[in-house]
Each structure stands twice: as C-alpha cells, then as structure tokens.
Design brief:
Layout: H1 3-14, H2 16-23, E1 27-29, E2 38-42, H3 44-56, E3 60-64, E4 67-71, E5 74-75, E6 80-84, E7 88-92, E8 125-128, E9 131-136, E10 140-142, H4 151-157, E11 178-183, E12 186-191, E13 194-196, E14 201-206, E15 209-214, E16 217-219, E17 223-228, E18 231-236, E19 239-241, E20 246-252, E21 262-268, E22 271-273, E23 292-300, E24 303-324, E25 329-352, E26 364-378, E27 384-387, E28 394-408, H5 412-415, E29 440-459, E30 466-481, E31 490-492, E32 497-502
Parallel strand pairs: 1-3, 2-4, 3-6, 4-7, 5-8, 6-9, 7-10, 8-11, 9-12, 10-13, 11-14, 12-15, 13-16, 14-17, 15-18, 16-19, 17-20, 18-21, 19-22, 20-23, 21-24, 22-24, 23-24, 24-25, 25-26, 25-27, 26-28, 27-29, 28-29, 29-30, 30-31, 30-32
C-alpha cells in the first residue's frame, strides 16, 4: 500500500462521520427494550419505546421476534417498518387493562352509521399524518380484547339520535376496537401479516395516499378492511373472511371534513368469504353464509373514480355491491374475472340513492363495465340488480360474458312484484324484497348493454329471466335464459326505448 492510500484509509477510519455510520442501527429488536413476549406482561410500552428509539436514529425496522406480545395501543411513526416475525403474535389487551389510547375528541359532523369510523388512536396499531410506514412479516395480529361494537363511541358522536358529548365534558374513552387504523398517511405498506378477530375493523385506512395491502389474511367478525377517501391504492393477493360485515369495503366519507373521492384503486387476486370467524385460518371453512363481499359504499359522499377489480373469488357471502347514495359520483369502474359460489341476496348489485348523508347533490353513476363473471348458488332473491334514480339514471353500463345460476323457486306472484324505489333508504338488496326476474332487473338506466349472458336456475322458477323499466337505450346480444314452461324470457315496460336485440332467439322484439 502506498503512502497516499494509507493516509486515506487512516482518515476514513478516524472520521467522525464514518464512525457514526458504522455504529448506526436500522434494526431494533423489541426484546432489547424490555418486551417479554410471554403473553402476560403488557408489552406495548416496550414496543413503543423501541419505535421511539428507531425514530431517534432516523427510522428503521422494529422487529417483533417469536412470542406473544400482550399489547394496548402501538403508535406507528414515520419511516418505521414494523416487522412481525413468523411465530410472533401481537395480542390485543383486554379492555379492563385500560391499555388503549384515549379516543380523539369528536369535532366533526355525523357522517357514518356508528362510532367506529370516527376514532383512530383507540386502536391496537395506529398512525396519523405519517410517511413511509410498513407493517409486514409472517406473524399474526390477534385483536384479542378488541370490541366488535362500542356503544360509548356511538354516544360520543351522537349516533342513534343521542346527544353527543361535548369536547371537554366527555370522560376518557379507551374502547379499543380496531386492529390497524391509519389516517392521512402516505407511502404505506401492509404485507404478509395475518389478522384475526380484528374488532370493528381489521384495517381502517382513511385519507391515505399510495397505500399497498398485499398478501394479507384477515379472519374477523366485522369489516376486514375499509379503504376510505384514499388515493392510489393497491389491494392484492388477500384473503378476507368476515361473516358479520363486509370483507373489502370502499368508502368516501366526510371523515376529513371535506368531500374527497376514493380514486385510482386496484383490487386484484383477492378472496372474500363469509364463513364462521376462525374457520378460514383453521381450514374448515364452515358456517352459514355471512356478509363478506367486496363493496363500494354505503358511505359515499365523495364518490369513487378510476377503480378496477379483477381476478377475485366470493364464497359463502353476499355478492359484489356498488352503491352510491350520498351525493357523490361512481365513475370509470371496471370489474373483470369474478367467480362466486353460494351467493347471498344478489350476485351483482349496482344502485344509486338519495340518502345524502352530508351533501345534497344527486348521486350519479356512469361508465361501468362488468365482465367475465361466473356465479352459482345465487339466492332466490335476485341475480343482478341495476337501479338508478328516476331523476338521475345510471349512465353507460355494460355487462358481458356472465354465467349466473340462481337457486330458483320464484313464484308467479313474485313475477308481478314492483320493487319500491330506494330513495333515502339504506341500500341493500334484501330491503327491496324478491325481484320480479330471477336473472336481471334493471331500472332507470341510460345506455345499458348486455352481451353473452347466460342465466339459469336450480329449481324451477316462474319469473322471467330479465325485467326492464325506464331504460333509454338497451342493447342485448346473445342472451341465453333457462325458462319454465309458459314464462317469458324478459319483460319490457312501456318506458323502455331504443331497444336492439341480436342473437337472442328466446327474446321477441317488444
């Protein structure tokens, strides 16, 4: 080594900057900060201390090694990667330990059906106004003592017409009810973890940008994940079992005190189901059909735009629901490659309404494509419902390459039913009763295209395969229905106009 090289090496070894770099940490083990992992000692204070140490060092990985970590609220911070190792479980503490953070003061107007959506800090893992946050690993988040419902949170916001508790007058409320809650965060990744018994929400993300949820398994009693007022979101390769509520639920509430769209969203390669809680994880997948499903709404003040759902399965749960009832817009939606088995209530439900939770503008829906869907064991109630408002029809809907098998059993009396208008009511197929057609019922639509549709039943059904009311521009190509003897293939009301029928021998031009 020449003298110059030796001098450079000496300077490098003695440089304060290099010394700091060599001693810096980017992996912080919670055991080094006092966590026990014995399932009995409250470990969340040690986990939070570990996160604070990582933040002080500029960020890094907070590692939770194998063990069971009894926890109250864990406070995520920016530039933190919470890594839950295989064999590690973060276990939600019982409510009596008073270990969850106090719920925020309620300062906004009522915009949701219950108190679960309004608060974030009273969660097992939470973060607000963060950047660059990850929760990953082969470990488990077990909600343990998290609440499914919390009347005290409902009271805080004045739900059920109760008087809201004024800020400053409310007692401290530490009702833990969410596994993961994130608000106004950017660049967020949740990957590989398993969430069981997630309380009101397995994951609640509100007002987040660049959110990725990948390869996550959720087996819980209420909502699997709610994506609310979020932009640039990817949900992929997830399995969500949620018998008591929705599986993957998209919303656009007034939670941020402003009207904000949920937009630029992709859901791909996911499974949703409604089996008994826990039976997805143990592999038995038993129990009467629950809610499950992928759903837009009901809270939809901002609306939904540029959303894609592809390559997903529904099993033992309700079908796909697209609901815009709070004055927003549902537009530029594509749905492709769905497989459904044992579908409750309705396979495909597309509706607008005028509940208008926080704004008074008419709800709108337009530019919607649903293709390549196979659904069997569909509830007698209905196959596909598409219903706009009399004064604001849904515009530009195309359904193509759909094969639907209804359970059947509809009567001649069912065939003459006239479903009431949704109006200000809650959007749910069961609330409108049995449809007058077992396959497709469409009303208040401008520009409806149906191509390559095959509908049939398991038990003889005395309803037509399709019924149409107030349609302006109806194109049907290659419609193949199964029919009971003497039953029409389709019923067209007098206000259906602009009809074009091709390659559909069962249909006669009305």
């Amino acid at each position: 080594m020449n003298h110059l090289a030796a001098l450079v090496l000496c300077l490098c070894l003695t440089s304060p900057f290099v010394a700091r770099a060599n001693s810096a940490r980017d992996d912080f083990n919670v055991r080094d900060f006092g966590a026990t992992g014995n399932g009995k000692t409250l470990d969340s204070p040690a986990i939070n201390k570990t996160i604070e140490a990582a933040v002080a060092g500029g960020g890094g990985t907070v590692r939770v090694p194998a063990g069971t970590y009894l926890s109250g609220s864990i406070h995520l911070q920016s530039n933190i990667h919470l890594l839950i190792d295989a064999g590690a479980t973060i276990l939600g503490a019982p409510q009596e330990l008073d270990a969850y953070d106090e719920a925020e003061a309620f300062t906004n107007q009522l915009y949701h059906d219950d108190g679960g959506h309004y608060f974030f800090r009273n969660s097992l893992i939470w973060g607000v106004n963060l950047t660059n946050v990850s929760i990953t690993g082969q470990g488990t988040i077990n909600g343990g003592g998290l609440l499914r419902n919390s009347p005290v949170l409902d009271q805080l916001v004045g739900f059920h017409n109760s008087q809201p508790l004024a800020p400053g007058n409310a007692p401290p409320v530490r009702a833990g009810n969410k596994a993961i809650a994130l608000k106004l965060c950017r660049h967020v990744l949740v990957r590989d973890v398993t969430i069981i018994h997630g309380g009101h929400f397995g994951i609640l993300a509100t007002g987040c940008d660049n959110l990725t949820v990948d390869n996550v398994t959720i087996d819980t009693q209420r909502d699997g994940m709610d994506i609310d007022c979020c932009r640039n979101t990817m949900v992929s390769n997830c399995r969500v079992n949620s018998p008591g509520d929705d599986g993957i639920c998209l919303k656009s509430t007034y939670a941020l005190g402003e009207v904000r769209l949920t937009e630029n969203l992709t859901i791909v390669n996911c499974q949703v189901s409604g089996f008994t809680e826990g039976t997805l994880l143990d592999g038995t997948m038993t129990g009467k059909g629950g809610t499950g499903r992928i759903k837009f709404g009901t809270e939809s003040t901002g609306g939904f735009r540029n959303c894609t759902i592809a390559n997903c399965t529904f099993r033992n749960c309700r079908g796909l629901a697209l609901e815009e009832v709070d004055g927003g817009i549902l537009e530029n939606i594509t749905v492709n490659n769905l497989t459904m088995m044992a579908v409750r209530d309705c396979a495909i439900y597309l509706t607008t309404g005028k509940r208008n939770r926080t704004v008074a503008t008419p709800s709108r829906a337009r530019n919607i494509l649903i293709s390549n869907v196979i659904a069997d064991g569909v509830d007698k109630l209905s196959g596909i419902q598409i219903m706009g408002l009399p004064e604001q029809p849904i515009e530009g809907v195309r359904l193509e390459n759909i094969r639907l098998v209804n359970q059947g059993g509809g009567s001649a009396q069912d065939a003459v039913n006239t479903p009431r208008e949704l109006g200000t009511g809650y959007p749910e197929p069961s609330k409108l009763g049995t449809m007058p057609a077992y396959g497709i019922f469409a009303r208040h639509v401008k520009g409806l295209e149906l191509a390559n549709i095959n509908v049939s039943f398991e038990k003889s059904d005395l309803r037509p395969a399709a019924a149409f009311t107030d349609i302006d521009g109806l194109e049907i190509d290659n419609f193949k229905p199964q029919l009971a003897e003497g039953v029409k293939a389709a019923v067209f009301a007098a206000d259906v106009k602009g009809i074009r029928i091709r390659n559909s021998p069962a249909l006669s031009q009305p």
